[in-house]
């Protein structure tokens, strides 16, 4: 570390105030690689890509025609009342499914909980984009009387949290975070703070996205942000840190964790997967879509998260990088990691699981948090697949192509960066 990043950040490592420990007790995932944690994780450690030719729409008019779309998903199984399927957008379906998986994994019995101490904070970077698209077409083709009365509650980005709470009768803190691709990591970090403040004993937190739509692809393709060179080889398209990367590949789905105070989890005899010990949020204040080329905002977030966790850089065993497979992100994220970790940056395994999952936008941090928890639980470090040609600007250990075993991971870090200059970093530790 050097310059102005060091002293103001580490000054509060000696903060004498007691800190409530926040632990992870449940995980839920919906993704192209599997609609359960086990199926998803098995795909990740096998180095399997979930990216395919898009089937949910005709993508032939777009420069990018591939994505990681959710398949074999039963929306009716998500809800207590099957009629609610048609009243909610696809991103809400994914959120509720992943949320209920996490609750089941945590063995959280709401009949035994104070409902006002159980909250939900599931964010979305874009919200109900499919609803916006469908209802705009109806408005144009058939006039205003044909627009659904469910349009507004279907599209707003807070509805994943609201509907999840209704489904399980959770009456505690409930709202949504919207910070583009940093959304889910911000949601998890802010949920942890709610528990530390005593606002809740339990928070169900993460992110969900359903943006594989015509309007989503038209917008991102015209920004020239998406991969265009691998439409005939979808599984090779997402290649973070590789010299041949040419843009991100979109994915849909959700990742949700159950967070609890350690005291509450122990009192109910819950299985503790790991601890959420550090979190930070910063802004580049540089550009609406490009990261800061000096990596200062992310570097400060990395330092700040470690300060909250009260750990030194050399203690971090693994980083799940944002690693979008875009030219700028991968280069500048690597720079920020090297600024903060120094020589340790070259010794520490780093992977971008977006090489397999695609980029889930506001849900990315949710599934990547789930991956970090599984890394600590299993000791298996997932690969960055499609890493074929080294980039001189990206010269760290990206765990190329094959998962790594036999390396104990006590501390894992996850980064996410979003349009608007948002940076979010979260740290998970083996529970002691």
- Helix content estimate: 25-40%
- Going across the major beta sheet, what is the strand order? 4-5-6-1-7-11-10-8-9
**End-to-end gap:** 28 Å
* Gyration radius, in Å: 20 Å
CATH homologous group name of the largest domain: Thiolase/Chalcone synthase
Main sheet properties: 9 strands, mixed
- How many domains comprise the coordinates? 2
Mean pLDDT: 95
Series of H and E elements: HEHEEHEHHHHEHEHEHEHEHHEE
Percent of residues in β-strands: 15-25%
Query: What is the CATH architecture descriptor of the largest domain?
Result: 3-Layer(aba) Sandwich
CATH topology of the largest domain: Peroxisomal Thiolase, Chain A, domain 1
Please write the CATH class name of the largest domain.
Answer: Alpha Beta
Number of strands: 11
Poorly predicted regions: 1-14
Tally of alpha and pi helices: 13
Active site: 181
Enzyme class: transferase
EC number: 2.3.1.179
Pathway: Lipid metabolism; fatty acid biosynthesis
Report on the architecture of this protein:
Keywords: Acyltransferase, Cell inner membrane, Cell membrane, Fatty acid biosynthesis, Fatty acid metabolism, Lipid biosynthesis, Lipid metabolism, Membrane, Nodulation, Transferase, Transmembrane, Transmembrane helix. It catalyses: (9Z)-hexadecenoyl-[ACP] + malonyl-[ACP] + H(+) = 3-oxo-(11Z)-octadecenoyl-[ACP] + holo-[ACP] + CO2; a fatty acyl-[ACP] + malonyl-[ACP] + H(+) = a 3-oxoacyl-[ACP] + holo-[ACP] + CO2. One of its GO terms (cellular component) is plasma membrane. Belongs to the thiolase-like superfamily. Beta-ketoacyl-ACP synthases family. This is 3-oxoacyl-[acyl-carrier-protein] synthase 2. This protein has 432 residues and is of the alpha/beta class. It has two domains: 169 residues, 3-Layer(aba) Sandwich (Peroxisomal Thiolase, Chain A, domain 1); 246 residues, Peroxisomal Thiolase, Chain A, domain 1. The chain has 13 helices and eleven strands. The chain has a nine-stranded mixed beta sheet, sandwiched between helices. A hairpin with a 3-residue loop joins β10 and β11. α7 packs across α13 and α10 packs across α11. The chain is globular, with a radius of gyration of 20 Å. The two termini are 28 Å apart. The N terminus is likely disordered.
């Amino acid at each position: 570390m050097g310059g102005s990043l060091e002293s103001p950040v580490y000054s509060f490592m000696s903060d004498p105030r007691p800190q409530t420990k926040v632990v992870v007790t449940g995980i839920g995932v919906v993704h192209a690689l599997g609609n359960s944690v086990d199926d998803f994780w098995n795909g990740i450690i096998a180095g399997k890509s979930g990216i395919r030719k898009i089937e949910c729409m005709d993508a032939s008019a777009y420069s990018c025609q591939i994505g990681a779309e959710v398949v074999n998903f039963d929306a009716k199984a998500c809800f207590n009342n099957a009629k609610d399927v048609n009243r909610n957008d696809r991103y809400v379906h994914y959120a509720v499914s992943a949320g209920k998986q996490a609750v089941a994994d945590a063995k959280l019995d709401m009949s035994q909980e104070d409902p006002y101490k159980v909250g939900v904070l599931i964010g979305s970077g874009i919200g109900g984009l499919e609803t916006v698209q469908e209802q705009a077409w109806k408005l144009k083709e058939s006039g205003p009387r044909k627009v659904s009365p469910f349009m507004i509650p279907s599209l707003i980005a807070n509805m994943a949290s609201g509907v999840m709470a209704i489904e399980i009768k959770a009456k505690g803190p409930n709202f949504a975070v919207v910070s583009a691709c940093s959304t889910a990591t911000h949601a998890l970090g802010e949920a942890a703070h709610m528990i530390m403040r005593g606002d809740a004993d339990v928070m169900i937190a993460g992110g969900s996205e359903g943006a594989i739509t015509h309007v989503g692809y038209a917008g991102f393709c015209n920004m020239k942000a998406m991969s265009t060179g691998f439409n005939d080889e979808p599984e090779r398209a997402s290649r973070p840190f590789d010299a041949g990367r040419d843009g991100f590949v979109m994915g849909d789905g959700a990742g949700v964790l159950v967070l609890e105070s350690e005291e509450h989890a122990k009192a109910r005899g819950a299985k503790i997967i790991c601890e959420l010990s550090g979190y930070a949020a910063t802004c580049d204040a540089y550009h609406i879509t490009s990261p800061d080329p000096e990596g200062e905002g992310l570097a400060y977030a990395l330092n700040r998260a470690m300060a909250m966790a009260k750990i030194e850089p050399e203690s971090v065993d693994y980083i799940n990088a944002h690693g979008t497979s875009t030219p700028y992100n991968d280069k500048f994220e690597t720079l920020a990691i090297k600024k903060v970790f120094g020589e340790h940056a070259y010794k520490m395994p780093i992977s971008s699981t977006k090489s397999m999952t695609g980029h889930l936008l506001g849900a990315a941090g949710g599934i990547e948090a789930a991956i970090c928890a599984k890394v600590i639980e299993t000791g298996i470090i997932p690969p960055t697949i499609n890493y074929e040609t080294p980039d001189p600007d990206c010269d760290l250990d990206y765990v190329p192509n094959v998962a790594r075993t036999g390396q104990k991971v006590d501390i894992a870090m996850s980064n996410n960066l979003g349009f608007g200059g948002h940076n979010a970093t979260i740290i998970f530790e083996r529970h002691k």
